[in-house]
Design goal:
The protein has helices at about 10-25, 30-45, 50-65, 70-85. With about 90 residues, the protein is an all-alpha fold. It has one domain.
């Protein structure tokens, strides 16, 4: 999005443009690697209680946004995946 000479770019616009440029220059493995590094750094800086709390918040948010059928479907998929891994 072109700006007039005296208009500044918002943080959101700059972030979007940077993200788009990065995605053009990097592949899936790049994102997997930075995700792994971020996960390792997070695990070094946080304890078990941190993960329990964010898991609880995530579970509460998920339960507010999904119904019984959602849980049945993901349970079925998980069971199928587990059975495949046992074979």
């Amino acid at each position: 999005m072109a700006k007039e000479n005296d208009e500044k770019m918002t943080v959101e616009e700059a972030g979007r443009m940077g993200g788009e440029a990065t995605s053009k220059n990097h592949d899936k493995e790049f994102y997997q690697e930075i995700g792994r590094k971020g996960g390792e750094a997070t695990s070094k800086n946080h304890d078990k209680e941190f993960y329990q709390e964010i898991g609880k918040k995530g579970g509460e948010a998920t339960s507010e946004n999904h119904d019984k059928e959602f849980y049945q479907e993901i349970g079925e998929k998980g069971g199928e995946a587990r059975n495949k891994n046992r074979d």
